């Protein structure tokens, strides 16, 4: 039963916003038990294909994925040009971008401290961003920097950096010359699920980028949490 409904969703028989038949209707139409119908809907819910709305029923979710090109973040940009990879991706699709920004000085956890190669007693400055598309929370981006490098710069100040934090790092003498990207899938934490208003069963992609300067010192660790149903991450590599 779940396979039949899944195919109907992917083929467009049921479009985003459509309400699926109830358990009783599925039972009558397909001659199945009520329990089989219920389990099929639960399976689609756990796969993130539908939501359960009180007094409405099982609603097909919007599956419009935002196309992101992570490599474009580090492409050269003319002086004065504003380039923020995610914001650019949103606006390219004619959608509205906004974000909430919070700055903190933190004693980084073991993973971040290790990636930034922080010594005992050293701190990081983190720019926490909750990013929105068309007014809806879309992803989380936390960027960590060694405090000793950025504490007197715009990176440590509240508000958006119109020319980009990467440009500020360059002005501080720490232009990133290489990056290492890690991507993994997992279920969201409770905090992530609440911030991103995730439906039950939605998994996330965690994208971690570590940027290194010319001396091979890590100067930035960016951790992005992307709901898997809302993002398509694409890399384009020249092989010549």
UniProtKB/TrEMBL annotation:
* Domain HTH gntR-type positions: 1-63
Q: Some GO term, biological process aspect, for this entry: which one? A: negative regulation of DNA-templated transcription
Keywords on record = DNA-binding, Transcription, Transcription regulation
Write down the superkingdom of origin: Bacteria
CDD domains reported for this sequence: WHTH_GntR
Entry annotated with the keyword Magnesium = no
Q: Name one GO molecular function term.
A: DNA-binding transcription factor activity
Q: Is Iron-sulfur a UniProt keyword of this protein?
A: no
Q: Which InterPro entries match?
A: Bact_HTH_transcr_reg, Chorismate_lyase_/UTRA_dom_sf, Tscrpt_reg_HTH_GntR, UTRA, WH-like_DNA-bd_sf, WH_DNA-bd_sf
Positions of transmembrane segments: none
Q: What is this protein called?
A: GntR family transcriptional regulator
């Amino acid at each position: 039963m779940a396979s039949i409904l899944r195919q109907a969703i992917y083929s467009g028989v049921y479009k985003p916003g459509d309400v699926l038949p109830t358990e009783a209707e599925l039972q009558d139409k397909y001659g199945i038990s009520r329990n089989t119908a219920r389990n099929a809907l639960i399976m689609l819910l756990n796969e993130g294909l539908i939501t359960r709305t009180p007094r409405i029923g099982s609603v097909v979710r919007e599956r419009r994925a935002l196309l992101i090109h992570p490599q474009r973040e580090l492409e050269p940009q003319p002086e004065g040009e504003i380039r923020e990879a995610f914001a650019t991706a949103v606006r390219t699709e004619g959608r509205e971008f906004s974000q909430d920004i919070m700055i903190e000085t933190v004693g980084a956890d073991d993973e971040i401290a290790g990636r930034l190669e922080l010594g005992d007693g050293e701190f990081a400055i983190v720019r926490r961003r909750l990013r929105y598309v068309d007014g809806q929370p879309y992803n989380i981006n936390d960027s960590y920097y060694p405090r000793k490098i950025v504490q007197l710069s715009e990176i440590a100040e509240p508000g958006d950096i119109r020319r980009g934090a990467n440009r500020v790092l360059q002005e501080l003498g720490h232009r990133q010359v290489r990056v290492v990207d890690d991507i993994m899938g997992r279920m969201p934490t409770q905090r992530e699920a609440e911030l991103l208003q995730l439906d039950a069963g939605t998994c996330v992609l965690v994208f971690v980028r570590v940027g290194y300067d010319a001396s091979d010192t890590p100067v930035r660790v960016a951790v992005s949490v992307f709901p898997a149903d809302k993002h398509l991450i694409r890399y384009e590599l020249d092989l010549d």
